[in-house]
Design a protein that fits this description.
It contains 6 helices and no strands. The chain has 132 residues and is mostly helical. The protein folds into 2 domains: 30 residues; 89 residues, no CATH class.
Length: 132
């Protein structure tokens, strides 16, 4: 009987010590995250499609908050996501710029495709929309 009680007490002590250490390490090694990044990430559709030019929605959210990417750069989300991001960041923007950017990128990628000549001709003189 003493062996069982001793084992339970030791297990509780080990659990308490490890729990305390985990809590302490959480405070010591915590990383500050801008709360706007999490709000922007929640507003994005989560498709991780790469249509914005970033690896996924998380990378795009960080870039938008830093000002490195336009708030209307999410092609998968469309105008509703653009409006939500503008509201979160306190910006005003033209939602059609995301569509223009997608069209420009598609034209740029398909410049050498012979079956797409008509599509390419329409965009050869196109300049990339500015997102500043």
């Amino acid at each position: 009987m003493n062996t069982i009680i001793f084992t339970v007490v030791i297990a509780l002590l080990i659990g308490f010590v490890l729990g305390t250490l985990l809590g302490l390490f959480k405070k010591i090694f915590s990383v500050e995250v801008d709360p706007k990044v999490s709000h922007v990430r929640e507003a994005l559709p989560g498709a991780n499609c790469g249509g914005c030019g970033y690896a996924g929605c998380d990378s795009f959210a960080v870039a938008v908050v830093k000002g490195e990417a336009p708030a209307n750069g999410c092609v998968a989300g469309g105008p509703s996501v653009s409006a939500a991001l503008n509201k979160i960041l306190g910006l005003t923007g033209d939602e059609s710029d995301a569509v223009k950017r997608l069209q420009f990128l598609l034209a740029k990628e398909q410049m050498n495709a012979p079956e797409q000549k008509e599509f390419i001709t329409a965009f050869k003189l196109a300049k990339p929309p500015s997102f500043q």
